[in-house]
Specification:
The chain has a single domain, classed as 3-Layer(aba) Sandwich (Rossmann fold). It is 36% helix and 24% strand. The protein is built from eight helices and seven strands. The protein is globular and about 50 Å long. It binds S-adenosylmethionine (SAM). The site of S-adenosylmethionine has 19 residues, from strand 2.
């Protein structure tokens, strides 16, 4: 293991550092260009189309919800929505953006430390967030998510295909959709409903078996 990899490993274990990193990121509005980049807008529309296909009139949760942009687009089509993000700054903006949607709520939470209610959600979505966990940390996550889904409920995964550090020198991201989604696809109790490979990202929908 080289020095950079060692530093990454140490940094990942410091949850306060990860929180700090994302709060710094959100010191500017829309740091991931979700409202300004055509690529991001088209991708978000694609995600919304998929969600509308699987979204029930019941309970949905999103981890890594950022400023609540996706919530704002789908609030009219779902029952209850719960959004979680590690960044207080992002959540403050998410609440403001969605203040007219009574069915939408947000909380600051680190998914790594979160315990989830059992058989509770009808849809869970993780979009561009699971690559912030190490491979070791990822291993128990399919089981944790499985337990929180109701029987026959859906998990939607959206992650970029790019691997390695991004151009800003992001120290946390190591791998992308192939590694992450395959882990869930091969988790024995998920049934694969849909698996779309775009040139840049992958959208996978899985169902919790009974
Ligand atoms: C790359 S952004 C993705 C935002 C949006 N979901 C999307 O698809 O564009 C990653 C988001 O995940 C959040 N995040 C990262 N690690 C997290 C964790 N451990 N628990 C909760 N949220 C986390 C970040 O604050 C950020 O809002």
């Amino acid at each position: 293991m080289n020095i950079q990899e060692r530093l990454k490993k140490i940094a990942r274990k410091q949850r306060w550092l990860i929180r700090y990193y994302f709060n710094r990121k959100y010191s500017e509005n829309d740091p991931y260009f979700l409202t300004t980049s055509d690529f991001e807008r088209n991708k978000m529309e694609h995600v919304v189309r998929v969600l509308k296909e699987y979204s029930p009139k019941d309970t949905m949760m999103e981890v890594g919800c950022g400023e609540g942009i996706l919530a704002n687009l789908i609030a009219g089509d779902i029952g209850q929505y719960e959004g979680f993000d590690i960044s207080q700054k992002a959540i403050t903006r998410a609440i403001e953006r969605n203040k007219n949607h009574a069915n939408v709520s947000f909380q600051v939470r680190d998914f790594y430390k979160m315990s989830l209610p059992e058989k509770h959600y009808d849809v869970m979505i993780f979009s561009e967030v699971l690559f912030y966990f190490s491979l070791e940390e990822l291993q128990p996550i399919p089981g944790k998510i499985f337990e929180a889904l109701k029987p026959n409920a859906y998990l939607v995964l959206v992650h970029c295909r790019a691997t390695g550090d991004d151009e800003s020198g992001n120290m946390i991201k190591d791998y992308g959709a192939k590694t992450i989604h395959d882990l869930f696809v091969h988790f024995r109790e998920f049934e694969l409903m849909q698996d779309e490979w775009d040139e840049n990202y992958r959208i996978t929908v899985l169902k919790r078996a009974e």
